[in-house]
UniProtKB/TrEMBL annotation:
This is Tetraspanin. CDD domains: CD37_CD82_like_LEL. It comes from Ameca splendens. Coiled coil: none annotated. Belongs to the tetraspanin (TM4SF) family. It is a multi-pass membrane protein. The chain crosses the membrane at residues 12-36, 56-79, 86-108, 219-242. PROSITE patterns: TM4_1. The keyword Membrane applies. Signal peptide: none annotated. Its main location: membrane. It is found in: Membrane. Keywords: Membrane, Transmembrane, Transmembrane helix. InterPro entries: Tetraspanin/Peripherin, Tetraspanin_animals, Tetraspanin_CS, Tetraspanin_EC2_sf.
Length: 256
């Protein structure tokens, strides 16, 4: 490989690793958001299941590893250190294999994941008390913003322990449909209906969640494919540069 090609490859690999470092920071940031978020659908799942917490720790770990790989990849590219380039290639290959494996598992276990999610939400609705709980407020936020009620429908709330044991005709305040006549609109808790038919949304939140996933499926798939292509490009560039380095010159590495 000519000297000019080596130089171009080196700086392309440096730029790629810089992007990889930024992607790693974004992944780690997303993992931290999943771990500490208190106002979304994630918060409902997180407090009811350890699976989401484990997933957030995995995201933080993968993001941290990606940042470290990006940093060492930059050093290996600029100073042409074969051992770092080889290590970088190996780590990228392992990450790519892990991503493909995770994608295949999620695809084939999607029905099990959907069932687990439904169980978590229905259990939360059954035990809903309207008190100041993170998961309850997060679920109220989801019902208000998505204009839905319950998981599969308003009927899920009939299993709530407080509603079931009350002599009043109660319903979830966050299910309140503003277009229907009824009592004053509240943000959370349980409200009393003035009529036998509560003024709530008719559709369940599972429909809204599935619609959101379908609407954003192309974006999610595009991001996954984009990351995979970048990883393959990084592997190719690192191998080309590694093969072109005949003898390592450690005198070029800055000493502190």
């Amino acid at each position: 490989m000519g000297k000019g090609c080596i130089t171009v490859t080196k700086y392309f690999l440096f730029l790629f690793n810089l992007l990889f470092f930024i992607f790693g920071a974004l992944i780690m940031g997303f993992g931290l958001w999943v771990l500490f978020d208190k106002d979304s659908f994630i918060a409902v799942l997180q407090e009811s299941s350890d699976t989401v917490k484990v997933a957030s720790y995995i995201l933080i770990g993968v993001g941290s590893l990606s940042m470290a790989m990006g940093f060492f990849g930059c050093i290996g590219a600029i100073y042409e250190i074969r051992c770092l380039l080889g290590l970088y290639f190996t780590c990228l290959l392992l990450i790519l294999i892990a991503q493909v494996t995770a994608g295949v598992l999620i695809y084939f276990q999607r029905d099990l994941l959907k069932h687990e999610m439904s169980s978590i939400i229905k259990r939360m609705i059954t035990n809903y008390s309207g008190q100041n709980k993170t998961t309850e407020h997060a679920w109220d936020f989801i019902q208000r913003t998505m204009n839905c009620c319950g998981w599969t429908g308003p009927g899920n709330w009939s299993e709530n322990l407080l509603i079931k044991n009350s002599t009043q005709n109660l319903y979830s305040c966050s299910c309140r449909n503003d277009s229907l006549p009824g009592s004053e609109v509240k943000q959370f808790g349980l409200c009393e209906s003035l009529s036998t038919q509560p003024p709530v949304y008719a559709t369940g939140c599972i429909t809204s969640v599935e619609k959101w996933l379908l609407d954003n499926c192309g974006i999610i798939l595009g991001i996954c494919v984009g990351v995979a292509v970048l990883e393959l490009l990084g592997m190719i560039l690192s191998m080309c540069l590694c093969k072109s380095v005949v003898q390592e010159d450690y005198t070029k590495v800055p000493k502190y």
